[in-house]
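ok trying again, last paste got cut off:
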Amino acid sequence: MQAKVPTCTACFLVLSEHLVPLADGQFLLRFVNDSQSCVMWYLWLGREGESKVLASPFFFERDIFDALNDEENPIEYDEAFRHAMVCADSFPEFLYRFWIENTIWYLLRERLELNSRQGDYRSRITTRL
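nice, full thing came through this time. structure:
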């Protein structure tokens, strides 16, 4: 799967070793990191089977969070969760957007033409900006 989804920022698929427990039977599962650990993506798993994708500048696995916490500018573990953002309402939505946006980036960089799906997607995104 890694080879099928291009990434212009050297992101890689990786599953966290353990689920991160949250309140009320909810969990987080890390599944993508960027190459410099500036952003990590987590699948939020709700108690009723619902899910969303969160992006975070922090690791939520407590041992990794503690090991990487900046000694000069420390942040409390509970505070780190406030920096997470919902970036997709579902895992399939995230994968599609990640794939098409990175594909478009590579095509534009190489000055190649977009197909109709890529062009439509780019138009929808740029009109929102």
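cool. The mean pLDDT is 92. Residues 2-91 form one domain.
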